[in-house]
Amino acid sequence: xxxxxxxxxxxxxxxxxxxxxxxxxxxxxxxxxxxxxxxxxxxxxxxxxxxxxxxxxxxxxxxxxxxxxxxxxxxxxxxxxxxxxxxxxxxxxxxxxxxxxxxxxxxxxxx
Amino acid sequence: xxxxxxxxxxxxxxxxxxxxxxxxxxxxxxxxxxxxxxxxxxxxxxxxxxxxxxxxxxxxxxxxxxxxxxxxxxxxxxxxxxxxxxxxxxxxxxxxxxxxxxxxxxxxxxx
DNA sequence: AACCGTTATACTTAATTAAGTATAACGAAA
DNA sequence: TTTCGTTATACTTAATTAAGTATAACGGTT
Lengths: 111, 111
Description:
homodimer, 4 helices, alpha+beta
C-alpha cells in the first residue's frame, strides 16, 4: 500500500501542476519546448497544446517564443513563469513532506 | 485561482479515497449499498463495481452483504472497513488543513 | 535559394474511463 | 406463490481524454 496524490492550481480547469513544472524546468535548461518535450517522450504537439492551455487559464504567458533562425528558434521562460515556478516548487515540496508525515502517522503499520 | 487535489491509497490501482469514504459513510447510515448510491446519483452497478474493485485491491472485505428477505437485503460495514475509514477520515481532514495552509502561504496574493 | 530545427495549428485516430442496459438469484412477508 | 427491494454480474454503449498525423511559416546559415 502506498500514498498517491495530485495537486494542482485550477482556474476553469487545470492551470498548473507537477507535469508543467517539470516541462518548464527543462525548457529553461534547453531553451526549446520541442527539446524539452522530446526529453520526456512527449510529442511537441502535446507539449504545445499543454502550454497554450495553461497560458489561457493562467491569463499570462509562460513562454517567450522565437521562430526561425539558424537554430530554428526557441522558447524561454517569462518572468511571470519564473515567479510561478518558484512558488509552486516550494509549495509542492512542502506539501509532499506534510502528506508523507501524515501518511506515516496514520498508516504506519501496513493496512 | 484555487487549489485542487486528490489523495488516495494505492495498491496496484486506486484502493481508497474520498469517494469511497463518502459512499461507505452512507452505506453505514442507510444499511444498503443501492440506497447509498442512489443518494449521490450513482448507479448501483457503478457502486458495486467500485466496492468490489476496492476490496480486491485492499485484500479484505469492506461490506458484509445480505441478500433476500422482506427488505430485499442490505450491506453493512465490516470491522476492517470501520478501522480504515477512521484512519482515512482523520488523515484526510489533516491533509486538507495542511495543504490549505501551504496554499495560503505561497499563493495568498492572487496569481 | 535551399536547408534545418524551431514554433504554430487543424484535424484525425486511438485508448482509456465512465456510464448504462439487461438478467438473475435471494428470501421474508403478504 | 407472488411481490419487492436488495445483491450479483455480464455485456454494451457513450463520453472523455490522450495521442498521433499532417502541414505550414519563420529566418539565420550555407
